[in-house]
Amino acid sequence: MSGGRRRWALAGGVAAVAVVVVVAVLSAASRDRPRGLAATFGEAGLRVASTDAGAWVGCVLTADTGVQHSTGLMGVTDLGRYDGMIFRYDEDVSHGFWMKGTPLPLSIAWFDGSGSFVSATDMTPCVDQADRCPSYPPGGPYRTALEVPQGGLDDLGVGPGSRIEVLNACR
């Protein structure tokens, strides 16, 4: 084989290895995070301290901007490795949440500025495109709302007397 052919064969082999590596990395990433969620939202660790002296630590998506708050989990059917989503606000708010375009049944809990539990409820999916979805009001002003797959709040220790702490990174 001539020198030119060897160089082309080597270059082709290197390119093939690069393609295999890229495909492997992308496949691993897609198993860890649902497509689009990681690019659209941030992530943070979450610690829930409950009244029964237990503590739960997990990883949640974060919605911090108006666009992220409005989008939430619309269209999401699988949270992948995430335990839920938190909605954070810079000041106390008291508006309710709705489930328009959200196919996944969710439970939501609201927490005040110090991270103390305010209230919680279950929310039913609403795929109505005519804006006829109900609103789920909080039990008072809040700074953070936590959405998890329906029924999951108990597993995290969320309820009266519980407190949350948002951590810098997932653990």
What order do the helices and strands come in, and which of them pair?
Elements (H helix, E strand, L loop, with lengths): L2 H30 L4 H4 L1 E8 L5 E9 L2 H6 L12 E10 L3 E2 L7 E6 L5 E7 L11 E2 L5 E8 L3 H4 L6 E5 L4
Parallel strand pairs: 2-3
Antiparallel strand pairs: 1-2, 1-9, 3-8, 4-7, 5-6, 5-8
Short description:
This protein is an alpha+beta fold and 171 residues long. The protein has helices at 3-32, 37-40, 66-71, 153-156; strands spanning 42-49, 55-63, 84-93, 97-98, 106-111, 117-123, 135-136, 142-149, 163-167. The termini are far apart.
Task: Provide tags for this entry.
171 residues, alpha+beta, Jelly Rolls, 2 domains, seven-stranded mixed beta sheet, two-stranded antiparallel ribbon, 4 helices, 33% strand, globular
Can you characterise this structure?
It is a single chain. The chain has two domains: 32 residues; 134 residues, Protein of unknown function DUF192 (Jelly Rolls). The protein contains four helices and nine strands. The protein is globular and about 45 Å long. The relative contact order is 0.19.
Biggest β-sheet: strands ordered side by side in the sheet = 6-5-8-3-2-1-9
CATH topology of the largest domain: Jelly Rolls
Q: Span from first to last CA?
A: 53 Å
Please tell me the total number of domains.
2
Compute the gyration radius: what is it? 21 Å
Q: How would you characterize the largest beta sheet?
A: 7 strands, mixed
Morphology call: globular
CATH class membership of the largest domain: Mainly Beta
Work out the helicity level.
25-40%
Report the strand count: 9
Strand content: 25-35%
Spans with pLDDT under 50 lasting ≥5 residues?
A: 6-35
